[in-house]
Amino acid sequence: MQKSKRSNIPFNFQHSLINIRYSVLLLLCSFITACYSQNASVAPVSHSAKWVLVIHGGAGGKSSMTPEQQKQYEAKMREALKTGSEILEHQGSALDAVEAAIKVMEDSPLFNAGKGSVFTSEGKNEMDASIMDGKSLKAGAVASVTTIKNPISAARAVMEKSKHVLLVGTGAEIFAQTQGLKIVDPSYFYTKERWDDLQKAREQQKSTKGDTVKKHGTVGAVALDMYGNLAAGTSTGGMTNKMKGRVGDSPIIGAGTYANNNTCAVSCTGHGEYFIRNVVAYDISALMEYKGISLEEATSFEIREKLRNQGASGGLIAVDKNGNIAMPFNSEMMFRGFINSDGKTEISH
Length: 349
Ligand code: ASP
Hints:
The protein is an alpha+beta fold.
């Protein structure tokens, strides 16, 4: 019976039925293979493929820089953005991008961080740096260090290789050395320009004009990587003519640096004492988390209202968990720049 039934079906139709069965089988196989390879893959289970890197080269006064110097600053910032963005583009972490971008600026004598740091009233370079991971809320920092070539890497080592958050002075330097970080003679950080700034500041102090040397150059970076993780880092020589042992906001988690995957990543620059008193970086995250306000509103309020009303000069860079960025400042200028996965990039001051 069956045989005769089958033979009644035209040959062409039988052929297409077989083809359909084959295609369904093939589709099923490829679906199973795709599911399996996704689970077995080392690639992230879910990511937006969206990344952002924002950097700053410090807030300060306009008058203090020639157009030629401005160009040099911008070129170095472009290099820092390129270095960090290559990491993010190749699925690297926000932490790696932040550290790498900051290292480029620390190694340049132009910025007040690493080589080129400003001098204390005693004529020494004492540097501060911090880094924070928005995913784990882990953080690391060093303060008043004088021989670590890249303080930002020492901060990261404190975060990842010690059980502490902040190490200072010789303790931080010994730790950095045990971690294999580069240690240099303090003279490595010297630049004539910063030395002259100190002499000017000393003169101004004597003539009771007060300290009017408004140099910029603290560096910072914030990033969102394609896994949705945020990170922030800041590195500085502090403020010209500062007292020996003075520590600013840059290595203070919550003041100069903060990152939380639920909200944003922030790096500040400006008159550190005010940023510490106002716990600026954390305040922005808290405003977003507890008040539900946007990054734009929170950062603008902090810099353009709160700090300005107190007579505090400075600015910050920030990125939120959705990749929105903010770069407000109330000083005459702030070197800043960003690059994102849409191919947009910009440097301004
Ligand atoms: N915030 C830094 C400090 O007070 C200085 C700066 O950003 O210019 O140490």
